[in-house]
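Morning!

This is the sequence you dropped in the shared folder:
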Amino acid sequence: QVQLVESGGGLVQAGGSLRLSCAASGRTFGNNAMAWFRQAPGKEREFVAAASWNGRPIYQEYLKGRFTISRDNANNAVYLQMNSLRPEDTAVYYCAADAAFRITVPTMAAGSYVYWGQGTQLTVSS
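The structure's back. Tokens below.
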């Protein structure tokens, strides 16, 4: 059974930093893109960042410079470092993994990701 388990969410003050982790089990994702999405209350799920199988990152344009995605294929994990957090970053953050083999440029489309975690809540207070 494939599982993606996010951790690291919580309550942080505006301007603070937090690092989310996603640990995968049940299969290895070293040849697959992995991504982070988020969903705020009353809003649709949106793309945050993705990393190709070899670590090439892409970001939601307006999050560039504050968020950094990284991955550790040896440990089957992906991370999201978030800095200068704002109240509007409050959301449930989801980890996702693609099933396609070694895509050069990962997609921003949620529908392309096959595996999803349960999410971790981030709340940024003002």
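Headline: The mean pLDDT is 96.

More detail when I'm at my desk.
O.
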